[in-house]
Amino acid sequence: MRLRSSVGCFSGITLATKIIAAYVQRAGLLEIMGDTGRINVQGEKVQKLDEFANETLVRCLGYRGTIGILVSEEDDEPHVIQEAASGKYIVLFDPLDGSSNINANVSIGTIFSILQRDANHDTKEVMAHILQAGSRQVAAGYVVYGSSTVLAYTAGEGVHIFTLDPSIGAYVLAQENIRMPHAGRIYSVNEAYQKSFPEHIQRYLEWAKQQGNYSSRYIGSLVADFHRTLIRGGVFLYPGTKKTPQGKLRLLYEANPLAFVAEEAGGVALDGQQRILDKVPHAMHERTPLIIGSPEEVQRVLSS
Ligand code: FDP
User: Fold this and answer.
1) Which residues line ligand 1 (CB under 6 A)?
2) Residue 100 CA: which ligand 1 atom is closest?
3) How far apart are alpha carbons 99 and 165 in whole angstroms?
4) pLDDT band at 38 (very low <50, low <70, confident <90, very high)
5) Strand residues in 170-238 grouped as ranges (E)
6) Whose CA is nearest to atom 12 of ligand 1?
7) Which secondary-structure segment (H or E) carries 35?
8) Cα of 284 to ligand 1 centre, how many Å?
9) Closest residue (by CA) to atom 17 of ligand 1?
10) pLDDT band for position 118 (50/70/90)?
């Protein structure tokens, strides 16, 4: 299993997510449930735990010698840690995905993507280093704070799953080279929006319902819905709607890392037109439609 030289970023992420996991588990006791009263750059209510998770990641990653830039879902602007070329990695993250579920004790997670500075640009051109296609990620993954805390990670040589053993405070390798099932009769989508989805997606959902052997599963927490899709197969969909043609999910720190994990495990990730990892971003908080999962099921959605 390869962690690559981005190992400094990886140890910062494991430290931060262990701290976040401990807080998430005690959230009710620590009185850190609820929102802060602040609205973030995405127009969403910032939960107290969102803020805590963000600060923890920035603190744990901000002092690593090899990290140059941090990008967070919660912050309008990137954190430039160092301009020197030695800060060669860019870490992009959604500190607490699914955070509107916190108060209901539903699984939530942290998603991260690691890029290397683009050698064609001066180190001062911050946006040029951030706005790279997902195919240039050197590593990516996520942590699910669920019935156990699970870390899925890829550095381009398969996907490996670690489980946090709370008795020793360490992530322990649980499954090496996990593969996503090639097919799976589960669809995961917020069906309340069905009528405003593109027509082929509406046709797919109608078709699946008529089969009689499909299950619908939607937690409403991307990281948890994706993790189930990775383990059990099927398809997760968050398409554009008439009102929001680009959907809701963010390209750089949600769709890209999950697409990298999916492809490394034998799955597929598209925006409906093209491969997620080929999309060249134009803005740091850009959104994208997402169709991700088992190759057979994604193909079925596209050809419906
Ligand atoms: P949340 O707003 O709770 O942070 O990316 C945000 C996200 O959750 C995803 O985790 C989740 O899949 C999606 O939004 C849920 O959106 P809907 O409520 O529109 O289904």
Assistant:
1) 97-101, 190, 220-222, 248-249, 254
2) 3
3) 23
4) confident
5) 170-175, 186-188, 215-216, 235-238
6) 222
7) strand 35-39
8) 18
9) 220
10) confident
Alpha-carbon torsion (157, 163, 165, 166), positive or negative: positive
Instruction: Choose which residue among 40, 49, 97 to substitute to test ligand 1 binding: the one with the highest number of ligand atoms within 8 A of its C-beta.
Output: 97
Both tokens of 166, joined, read 């709370």
What confidence tens digit (pLDDT) does each residue in 82-98 have?
988 889 999 999 999 99
Global pTM reads 0.94
Helix (H, G, I), strand (E, B), or coil: what is residue 92?
strand
Q: Which atom of ligand 1 is least distant from the CA of 96?
A: 4
List, for residues 133-169, the tens digit of each pLDDT value: 999 999 999 999 999 999 999 999 999 999 999 999 9
- Residue 103: pLDDT band (50, 70, 90) is confident
Of 248, 253, 254, best ligand 1 pocket probe by most atoms within 8 Å of the beta carbon? 248
What percent of the chain has a predicted confidence (pLDDT) above 90? 78
Phi, psi of 185 (to 5 degrees): -95, 60
Q: Cα(115) to centroid of ligand 1, in Å?
A: 24
Reduce the secondary structure of 105-156 to three states and give it as a string: CCCEEEEEEEEECCCCCCCCCHHHHHCCCHHHCCEEEEEEECCCEEEEEECC
